[in-house]
Write a structure and sequence with these properties.
Blueprint (H helix, E strand, L loop, with lengths): L1 E10 L3 E11 L4 E5 L6 H8 L10 E8 L2 E2 L5 H6 L2 E4 L11 H7 L9 H11 L1 H5 L10 H13 L5 E5 L7 H16 L3 E5 L3 H7 L2 E6 L2 E7 H6 L1 H7 L10 H14 L1
The structure holds adenosine-5'-triphosphate and magnesium ion.
Magnesium ion (MG) binds next to helix 1.
Length: 261
């Protein structure tokens, strides 16, 4: 179980990016975080996996725990060893390394003998990566790079995967493919914390959803409930067909919410 109490993140000593986030995530769930650009979604994931830049004045306040042990420490490797793996925004694979080298880099915290078997397991899950195992990763297509990013995270044998915009920039068919991969991993018992601007895909596969606006959770509930919620429908699942909204529309949403309350 992952628990966060009153998390605040300050960037560069001045900008308050997360303003008191509290949540509890049960093992084995898919939990979606929705919100417009700049809402703080990436920051939340970076705080959990210890990837904030503390040398440049990024500060975390509040408490958190995973499996009863504290989060928000200074050691990102320790978090990986404890079973949380992060698929970063915009894939962040090592473009100059081969597919296989990228996968091996995902096992950097491990000293056990199972790495070779896990490599083969990833090639079985993603045959296209197996075919291209000696290719330079930078030349893979966007969808293939996303699969590589997921497979690399899996090489740490995580119990929970944090995924930041895994469908960003992918064609609709690939979006469906990534969604299916997430469902498959979850069916194998892996918890998923999914950050998405593509709200309709996220709410289709999630158990629970949180809506983040300017560093705060403004709404949360079971995914099936959010899918039917009039405001969520109008402002996150609405026009354009891809579930994306721009900031002005969201600002309008917040103004309207204030009038109504
Ligand atoms: N290193 C940083 N230093 C200062 N401000 C930052 C830094 N990184 C992000 N920010 C600011 O913090 C806020 C939250 O950023 P964050 O990346 O968490 O948002 P996000 O919800 O992931 O947005 P997006 O959907 O665009 O990825 C934004 O206003 C952003 O400009
Ligand atoms: Mg982001």
């Amino acid at each position: 179980m992952l628990e966060i109490n009153n998390l605040e993140v300050v960037y560069n000593k001045v900008i308050l990016v997360l303003r008191g986030i509290s949540l509890t995530i049960e093992d084995g769930q898919i939990v979606a975080f929705l919100g417009s650009n700049g809402a703080g979604k990436t920051t939340l994931l970076r705080a959990i996996t210890g990837l904030l830049d503390i040398h440049n004045g990024d500060v975390t306040k509040g408490t958190g725990s995973y499996d009863g042990k504290p989060l928000f420490g200074p050691d990102p490797d320790a978090i990986v060893r404890r079973g949380i793996s992060h698929v970063m925004e915009r894939r962040r694979i090592f473009a100059d390394l081969t597919v296989e080298e990228n996968l091996r880099s995902g096992a950097f915290t491990r000293r056990d003998a199972g790495i070779k078997d896990d490599l083969e397991a990833q090639y079985e899950r993603f045959p296209v990566l197996g075919e291209r195992r000696n290719r330079t990763a930078g030349y893979l297509s966007g969808g293939e790079q996303q699969m590589l990013a997921v497979a690399r995270a899996m090489m740490a044998r995580p119990k929970m995967l944090l995924m930041d915009e895994p469908t960003l920039g992918l064609a609709p068919r690939l979006v469906e493919e990534v969604a299916q991969v997430i469902k498959d991993l979850n069916a194998e018992g892996i918890g998923v914390l999914l950050v998405e601007q593509n709200a309709s895909v996220a709410l289709q596969i999630a158990d629970h959803g949180y809506i983040l606006e300017t560093g705060k959770v403004v709404h949360d509930g079971p995914a099936e409930q959010l899918r039917e919620d009039e405001d969520v429908k109008e402002f996150y699942l609405g026009v354009g067909g891809d579930g994306r909204r721009n900031y002005r529309e969201v600002k309008h949403y917040r103004r309207r919410k204030r009038w109504l309350s």
